[in-house]
């Protein structure tokens, strides 16, 4: 009986040892570790990196980049990264303390906002702040890919040939996207090229493709703000003056405010949902950056064309 117990104990110990080893192997990796804050940037990074490194994206699908939080384990992963990729320009408000900590600790960091031609918000209520939503312009994403390629090639153990090839391929896909967007928007008459959204997201798209930004329901550059009655009245007047008949709501937020605006305007206004600050789960319409931008292009073109 004692022998049976001993045998069972040894078997259990061996099984536990295998399980622990398996977990350690899964958790550890000899590949370089890349950590990315937002899921839009995460998709871009994954396209360039492939299997040359392990990529961890902190922001979950359908999350708000202004307010999402991370676990202690994810914070530790940031600390141990060979490269941290962030959006910057004040976008990751809920994560900034962690980004500051890793920067102080010397973690190599690529801030996308530092490598693009930055635009200020056009709205006075944004206080002259820089606009972090550069990804609505594919040409600026190319600038990020260029900087990412250089940063990756500086990491020991990276497959340089693979990185260069994948970066070239993805730049080609971004160029194709840019051409498709330009062609679709060219069909919209000049007097209808006006955008109204939940908050200020499309400044770069407007700059690249010649749209007018009539206004936004939520003032400033963050989804954490809320509109006042005066904000709604001013925006209603601007919409009426511009003759806008379609306004756009973000898929990541309830459209109650924008529906209220449509009611306040006293005119017939269509509300069209767009994907703006987060990718979705697979099958929900915007699970990659390219898919998201193509979906938005189609919806904007259909919403503003006569």
Question: Describe it for me?
Answer:
With 306 residues, the protein is α/β, with parallel strands linked by helices. The chain has 2 domains: 33-178, Rossmann fold (3-Layer(aba) Sandwich), CATH 3.40.50.1980; 188-304, Rossmann fold. The chain is 47% helix and 11% strand. The protein has 10 helices and 8 strands. Strands 2-1-3-4 form a 4-stranded parallel beta sheet, covered by helices on one side. A two-stranded parallel ribbon has the order 5-6.
Compact description:
The protein is built from 10 helices and 8 strands. It is α/β, with parallel strands linked by helices.
- Average pLDDT confidence is 83
The tally of structural domains comes to 2
Radius of gyration, taken over Cα atoms and rounded to an integer in Å: 23 Å
Q: How large is the share of residues in beta strands?
A: 5-15%
Question: What can be said about the biggest beta sheet?
Answer: 4 strands, parallel
What ranges have pLDDT less than 50 throughout 5 or more consecutive residues? 1-27
CATH superfamily of the largest domain, by name, is Nitrogenase molybdenum iron protein domain
Order of helices and strands: HEHEHEHEHHEHEHEHEH
